[in-house]
Amino acid sequence: MAIRLDTPLGPMLARFDDAALTALQFCTDQEADAGQPARQPLERALSEQLQRYFDGALAHFDLPLAPQGSPFSTAVWRALQHIPYGQTAAYADIARAVGHPKAARAVGRANGANPICIIIPCHRVVRTGGAIGGYGGGIERKRVLLDIERRAMAAATAAPLPSTTAAAA
Hints:
The protein is 41% helix and 14% strand. The strands form 2 sheets. Strands 1-2-3 form a 3-stranded antiparallel beta sheet. Strands 4-5 form a two-stranded parallel ribbon. It is globular. It is of the alpha+beta class. Helix 3 packs across helix 5 (104-112).
C-alpha cells in the first residue's frame, strides 16, 4: 500500500510491507494522487516523525525499515544510517566503511538507489572535498535537507543550559 505525504519539499510516496517501511520517495503531484492518507499506526508514525524532522525537532527516526537491494547496496544503506545528524560523509568514506575502499562510484550508485530517502540519509553524502554531489530528489532538496539539520544543530548548541541554581533550590 502507498500513502501520500505532503512535506515542505513537495509530495512524497511511502510504501510498506506488513511490518516496515519499504520505500519513501519524493514524487510528482500526479504520482502522489495514487497514495492514500496515513491510517495505520506505522503510517501515522512516519507522518508525525517526518513533520518533526522538517520542523528541526527530530534527529533520529524510530521506524522499522525494510529496504530491498543487493548485499552491497544494503551494506551502504546501513552505513549511511551511521552518518551523524547535521554532518556529511564523502562517498569514499562510505566505501571504506563498507570494506570496499576503491568502490566510491559503486557507493554513489547504491546511494542513488536508496529506496528510503531522508530516513536512510543519502542526502548526507557529498563528494570528497565537500562539493554537494547529486541527489535523486534534486540538488535543491538536498541543500534544504542539509540546512534543516545544520540549523537544528546550531540551535541545539546555542540553547542555554538549564540553571543548576534552580535545580539545587
